[in-house]
């Protein structure tokens, strides 16, 4: 089942909605539609429940407020991406999930000031939207649902108040120094100006995990008052911080390592002819202990495809004696150049869920690099 769907693009950046996003969207529509939550000190009403209108109209207004708010959330993520693009960073996509939006950047610049500016762009935009909406709200408001004959005005003011309150909250919340949230990335940038990047990441991760632990405890204690969202955010922070720490350590460990330094070079690459049966291939797999092979007529001929043990497993055992390699091999050849960074090879394998890449130079195979080759290099250089 496909979980994310592209709904468009902005500045060449694909915009996607994850199916889990529907959960929070429907939740916000319901909350805004039935609640009459008032912050008396601010004079703001965060819901349409107190208005003297039909239930259907309340939900319609709740839907409008929710869509407008999540549009500002999209702009929050887009601001990160626009600043990052200015530094030459490729943005794969922006995806809206149940816990918010995520900009998927190819790689965050390690230069601390660049990372700080990219990270600060989102909270700055959210705070800017919130302050502007607040000014509009207090200029024409505050809302007074009990006032008769001003239904449209009050509905519009409540929408503006919701946009104002939640954007200011979003901006301030994202400035919490809990890596990998925006505030945590700003904290890492601050650390990185004073110490090696790996150490800066580890310190920011430690702070982030401490905040995640505190959020998780508070979320558990307030489950009956909406603490589930805090619990989900705490899990996102904890596991996100751990994943980014690992990725940072790997990228720095592989710094300066090229694909040609770790690949198996021709003529040591084992290939299989396209007319072999799968039984013949299994015999070779057993002897060589490799899980995937390029398919070629000869070592000097072009690569026709790649076949892996997973491809063999999809064919019933009774048919492997008559099924040929060319019948089940993958004809799409995902390759990389020998002078590419080893970390780029690892990222490509991870994004495409591959165990190996064909290394091509001028259209000719010069080697093959596997995930095992890269893990071995990380172990040796880390030692």
Count of all domains: 2
> How would you state the average pLDDT, rounded?
89
First and last CA, distance: 41 Å
Q: Outline the biggest β-sheet.
A: 4 strands, mixed
- Going across the biggest sheet, name each strand in turn: 1-2-5-6
Alpha-carbon Rg, integer: 27 Å
Labels describing this entry:
383 residues; CBS-domain; alpha+beta; 55% helix; 4-stranded mixed beta sheet; 2 domains; 13 helices
Describe this structure in words.
It is a single chain. This protein has helices at 21-34, 55-86, 112-140, 151-174, 182-192, 197-221, 227-253, 259-262, 278-288, 309-313, 325-328, 342-352, 371-382, and strands spanning 4-10, 13-18, 38-39, 44-45, 91-97, 100-105, 264-265, 292-295, 305-308, 335-336, 356-361, 364-370. It has two domains: 4-175, no CATH class; 259-382, CBS-domain (Roll), CATH 3.10.580.10. The protein is 55% helix and 14% strand. The strands form four sheets. It has a four-stranded mixed beta sheet. Strands 7-12-11-10 form a four-stranded mixed beta sheet. The chain contains 13 helices and twelve strands. The chain is elongated and about 85 Å long. A hairpin with a 2-residue loop joins strand 1 (4-10) and strand 2 (13-18). The longest helix has 32 residues, at 55-86. The mean pLDDT is 89. It starts with a strand and ends with a helix.
């Amino acid at each position: 089942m496909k979980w994310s769907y592209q709904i468009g693009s902005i500045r060449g950046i694909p915009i996607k909605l994850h199916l889990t996003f529907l959960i929070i969207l429907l939740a916000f529509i319901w909350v805004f539609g039935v609640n009459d939550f008032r912050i008396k000190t601010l004079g703001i009403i965060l819901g349409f429940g107190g208005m003297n209108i039909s239930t259907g109209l309340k939900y319609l207004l709740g839907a409008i407020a929710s869509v407008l708010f999540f549009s500002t959330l999209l702009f929050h993520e887009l601001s990160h991406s626009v600043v990052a693009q200015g530094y030459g960073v490729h943005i794969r996509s922006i995806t809206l999930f149940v816990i918010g939006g995520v900009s998927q950047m190819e790689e965050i610049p390690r230069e601390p000031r660049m990372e700080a500016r990219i990270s600060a762009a989102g909270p700055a935009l959210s705070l800017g939207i919130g302050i502007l909406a607040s000014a509009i709200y207090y200029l024409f408001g505050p809302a007074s649902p009990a006032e008769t004959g001003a239904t449209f005005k009050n509905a519009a003011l409540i929408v503006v108040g919701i946009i104002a309150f939640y954007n200011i909250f979003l901006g301030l919340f994202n400035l919490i120094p809990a890596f990998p949230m925006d505030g945590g990335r700003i904290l890492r940038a601050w650390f990185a100006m004073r110490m090696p990047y790996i150490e800066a990441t580890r310190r920011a991760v430690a702070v982030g995990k401490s905040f995640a632990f505190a959020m998780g405890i508070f979320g558990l204690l307030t489950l009956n008052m909406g603490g589930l969202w805090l619990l989900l955010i705490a899990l996102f922070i904890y596991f996100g911080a751990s994943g980014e720490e690992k990725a940072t350590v790997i990228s720095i460990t592989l710094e300066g390592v090229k694909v040609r330094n770790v690949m198996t070079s021709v003529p040591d690459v084992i290939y299989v002819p396209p007319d072999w049966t799968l039984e013949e291939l299994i015999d070779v797999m057993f002897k060589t202990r490799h899980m995937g092979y390029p398919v070629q007529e000869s070592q000097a001929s072009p690569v026709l495809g790649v076949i892996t043990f997973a491809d063999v497993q999809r064919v019933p055992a009774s048919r492997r004696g008559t099924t040929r390699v060319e019948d089940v091999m993958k004809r799409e050849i995902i390759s990389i150049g020998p002078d590419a960074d080893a970390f780029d090879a690892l990222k490509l394998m991870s994004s495409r869920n591959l165990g190996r890449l064909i290394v091509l130079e001028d259209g000719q195979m010069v080697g093959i690099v596997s995930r095992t080759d890269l893990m071995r290099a990380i172990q040796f250089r880390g030692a």
